[in-house]
Structure formats: structure tokens, C-alpha cells
Amino acid sequence: xxxxxxxxxxxxxxxxxxxxxxxxxxxxxxxxxxxxxxxxxxxxxxxxxxxxxxxxxxxxxxxxxxxxxxxxxxxxxxxxxxxxxxxxxxxxxxxxxxxxxxxxxxxxxxxxxxxxxxxxxxxxxxxxxxxxxxxxxxxxxxxxxxxxxxxxxxxxxxxxxxxxxxxxxxxxxxxxxxxxxxxxxxxxxxxxxxxxxxxxxxxxxxxxxxxxxxxxxxxxxxxxxxxxxxxxxxxxxxxxxxxxxxxxxxxxxxxxxxxxxxxxxxxxxxxxxxxxxxxxxxxxxxxxxxxxxxxxxxxxxxxxxxxxxxxxxxxxxxxxxxxxxxxxxxxxxxxxxxxxxxxxxxxxxxxxxxxxxxxxxxxxxxxxxxxxxxxxxxxxxxxxxxxxxxxxxxxxxxxxxxxxxxxxxxxxxxxxxxxxxx
Length: 422
Known about the structure:
Layout: H1 2-10, H2 14-24, H3 26-41, H4 46-74, H5 77-97, H6 102-114, H7 119-131, H8 134-165, H9 168-187, H10 190-194, H11 211-240, H12 246-266, H13 274-289, H14 298-309, H15 312-326, H16 332-361, H17 363-383
Helix pairs in contact: 2-7, 2-9, 3-4, 3-8, 3-9, 4-5, 4-6, 4-16, 5-6, 5-9, 7-8, 7-16, 8-9, 8-12, 8-15, 11-12, 11-15, 11-16, 11-17, 12-14, 12-15, 13-14, 13-15, 13-17, 16-17
Protein name: MFS transporter
InterPro entries: MFS, MFS_trans_sf
Keywords: Membrane, Transmembrane, Transmembrane helix
């Protein structure tokens, strides 16, 4: 396993792109915590901190696909670096001005989220050109999914360290300056500067005209709901089982499970169409959430949380492959950005839903939300399977042949003239 990943990371530019992207995403990974800490330090309430974080999240959800489409049209350096600088400047305004006047704080949060560069989608668009072979690209997607777990674990620790040794405002400024440095490292790399999207068919929907992509977005919205609800339910469980670090035990176990599962998944080649494999992985992910409703003692619950995370990173790695295959020609960065947005919105919806459910039915009901969301994700994927499979490239009616709407299919979108840009 280690040898395979080592070979991948020794590929020219691969480590730089992966590390630069992770560093560039630090501001996004830490925004919620950093904003809450700064707002409280400025005398604001938790309610205000939550609203400001939500404004940032809304801006992020709106900005990712729009910036992704701009990257597909104009290239990575001309979009990502200015966006990173503008996002950091907006967060700097928030850190300097504080909560007074409040409209400036809201505007700064909206701008910071809106201009967050689509580094995730950009990296996934670069992997095929950097790594070449399909099996290595699949392994890179798995490593990418694992790295997300690492960055969302390390980022909050860095914020709390900066707050402890300096201040809440300094944490905001330093984290965002580091993020600009990560984005700069990516866009100055030769693969990023050389990369150009394939010519695209003109359509105002862009990537969303792909029925296969819409299926994936619907599925992973509910996966996001599951993850968001687990975080809230874990806090409720901790309140009933001694408080303190119990919730962090559960969430850390979930992250470790995802890390182990992702590394194992990417360490071997997989035969057959990824669309079929995705259905199996989402089914396993949904089933992994169901035992959480048993709410046993802390040790057993921590083990169940770890088990529930095992198939998360493999499912993400597999959906990255399927998105790449079904994104319409010339829209790959936008398509990946839509996946990020949908996942984030689902996460927020799960967070909002779990609290009221838990108040009505207790902690077990709170943990029923991720189980139910996982099952709905599976139902969506199974009910719409015909949009992810088809006959092009193989025998008519062969269910094992991907419909793959990307330019690898060399199919012209009906109703539009080739050569025009959306």
C-alpha cells in the first residue's frame, strides 16, 4: 500500500499539487471555528457567530460552481489566485473591523465565502494530465479523500494554537495568508499553468445539463445530510455520557475509519465500471450508519463510529471518478465544484435537522437521521441507475458500459453548435 502511494507522490508535480491544495483549503476548513472564536472574543453571542458562519457558508455554496465555471473558461491561474486574494482580504476586513458596524461584518463573510477558490475541483481536473494512467488517477482520488480528513482534523488544531499563543484576529489573518500561499503554489505549478479545459458546448446550465451528474448530486446531498447530523448527535450523546471529550472521540473515530478505508481502497486496482462500484459503496456506507441508533456505551459507540466512517472516503474517491466520466465536455472543474457545494449544503441541512429530531426523540433518534439519510442516498442512486449506465461504446443494452458524458465519449451535445463557449 505505502509503496503504491509513494510511487504516486514521487510523480513530478504530484506532491506539490496535493500539498498546495490542502494548504490553500485551510481557510475553508477552519472558517466555522475561527469565526465563532473571533465573534465570541469581540463580545458577540453564539447566535451571531452561527449566523456569520452561515453567511460564509452560503457565499461558499454560491461561489464554488460559479468560480469552477470561470476556471473551465479562463484557466486556473487567472481565476484561483485573484479569488484567494479577495477571500483573504475580506476575512482581513472582518478581523480588523470586527462586529461594528455589523453590516460590514456580514458583507465580509459573504465575500470571503463567495471568493473561496475552487481548489478541490481544480486538483481533480489536473490529476489525469499529471498521472496519466487511470489506475493512478483512481488512487489519487482516494488519497485526496483521505487528505480531506487530515486537513479538517489538523486545521482546527492550528486555529486553537494560534488563538492560545496570539489572538483570535491573528488566527484569522494567519490562516488566510497561509491559504493564499497554498493557492499560489498550485497556480504557479506547470500543470496548472498548462491546463486548459476541453472546448464546451454552449448551455446556460453548464455541467448541470448532465443527468448523470444530477443523480450524483442528489445522492451526495443526502450523504452530506448524514455527516452533518452525526456531528450534532455526537454532542447530544456526549451530554448523556459524561460530556467532556466524548463527542470528539466519536468524530475522531469516524475520521480514522474514513482514513483507513480510503487508504485501503486506493491501494488496489478495481475492475468493472465505477458506477456499479459506487452503488455498492453507498450501500455499505448507509448500512454502516444504522447501528449508531443502538447508542451503547462509550467504547462500543466509538467503535461503531469508526466502522461507520470506513466507506466514506472510498465512496468519495469513487464518486470523483464517476463525476469525471459524466461531466459534460469542458465542464469538469464546474462539475466537481457542484459536488462540493451539494455536499456542504447537505451537511448544513443535516446539522439543522438533527437538533429538532433529537429534542423530540432523544439521542437515538438523532442518530437515526444519518441512517435514514444514508438509505435515501442509496434509494436515489438505485432509482436513477439508468442515467449512469447505457450502451455507448458497447453492445446495446449492456448495463456494464458507462454512459460517460465527458469528452472521452467524443459525443456532441444535441442542440448546440460545437466550438461555442458556455
